[in-house]
Design a protein that fits this description.
54% strand, globular, 4-stranded antiparallel beta sheet, WD40_repeat_dom_sf, mainly beta, 17 strands, DmX-like/RAVE_component, WD repeat, Methylamine Dehydrogenase, Chain H, WD40_rpt
Length: 185
């Protein structure tokens, strides 16, 4: 799966030189993040205008429409994570009201899909990491702060400053004992 500054999203297969599917044409908002879900049957694309779109991967048409597309943040959606069986999605980004980390239910109507919005990360959240074993969500922000959320209780457990500049990367070890942060500095 490839995404570009011009907004295009294309899927390729290892053994074929041509694209299999073009999910989005050039001329859309820049792609900020893309992932497959754990089952590999869905892919999601976040963009610079605050949208998250999700497609079924096994498409027979060359230009399929997303089965779900909604604006998660008013400025940009920088990252997202499929939670559990992909019916729950977490997003990070920047919104005018500082609700910069959100939980969404993909199985309900778009007007009711926002489950919870966390007010955190002045100037926006840049990255997100889900820890399934502990049911925790970790986010990094533009000012170098890290927030850890309990998804079950929908609350922020703690916040600390890890860097002097924007957090650009988060990684979690497989046993979920540690996480690592990387920054713009």
């Amino acid at each position: 799966l490839t995404g570009a500054q011009d907004g295009s999203v294309r899927m390729f297969e290892w053994t074929r030189p041509q694209q299999l599917v073009c999910f989005r044409q050039a001329g859309n908002a820049r792609v900020t993040r893309m992932y497959f879900n754990a089952q590999g049957n869905k892919c999601g694309v976040a963009d610079g205008e605050g949208f998250l779109s999700i497609w079924q991967v096994n498409q027979t048409t060359s230009n399929p429409k997303p089965y779900l597309s909604w604006q998660c943040h008013s400025k940009t959606t920088s990252d997202f994570a499929f939670i559990t069986s992909s019916s729950l999605v977490a997003t990070s980004g920047q919104s005018n009201d500082n609700r910069n980390v959100c939980l969404w239910d993909t199985l309900v109507s778009s007007g009711n899909s926002l489950i919870h919005a966390f007010t955190c990360h002045d100037h926006g959240a840049t990255v997100l990491q889900y820890a399934p074993k502990h049911q925790l969500l970790i986010s990094g922000g533009r000012k170098g702060y890290i927030c850890v959320f309990d998804i079950r209780q929908r609350q922020i457990l703690f916040t600390f400053q890890a860097h002097e500049s924007a957090v650009k990367a988060l990684a979690l070890d497989p046993s979920e004992d540690y996480f690592v942060t990387g920054s713009a500095e």
